[in-house]
Amino acid sequence: MPLRCAVFASGGGTNFQALLDRKRAGDLHVDFVLFIGNNSGAAAFERARKNDIPVIHCAPSHFASEEAYSEKLLGILHEHRVELIVLAGYMKKLPSELVREYRHRIVNIHPGLLPAFGGKGIYGSHVHEAVIAYGAKVTGVTVHFVDNEYDHGPVILQRTVEVLDTDDPHTLAGRVLKVEHASYWQAIEAIAQGKIKVEGRRVVRME
Fold this sequence. Notes:
The protein is of the alpha/beta class. The chain is about 35% helix and about 25% strand. Helix 4 links the parallel strand 4 (about 85) and strand 5 (about 105-110).
């Protein structure tokens, strides 16, 4: 049976759309059974609806405590029998209890080569600004498992992107985003096919 996936997003959801396109093309063998967003105005909600994926608006601000938030999220995920959580531009830190229960079953994509240019507050355009300010010659994307620290979990896949002398954060972001769209599905497909094993901090691909 295809792996049952929930997608979490906060914004436009272009990575989500790229995954939907790969599934439609027959390259990605998973079922997207749920979409959860913390921002009711996010365009990603409409992407889910157009693909007949159940949507739920659930934000930490709706709850009096992290425990209550975590209990609600876990209940929703269990109800939909979710096996893998896919973060696609999700701007909220997941509750610790959820991360523990879904250990090595939550994936995220970061627009930089971790562990450089990551951590709390370093997301989206901030990553590209930091890369250019530092004078780095290479950046890229990192797909990793999520743990309780920002941008810290075991690395599944990385791809590089050259930083040009003429780049500004906008032009660099555009090229990195293309690599994100071309790469994220590959990591998820490897997980779906049972080809990923975690050994400490190392993620080993099994053929």
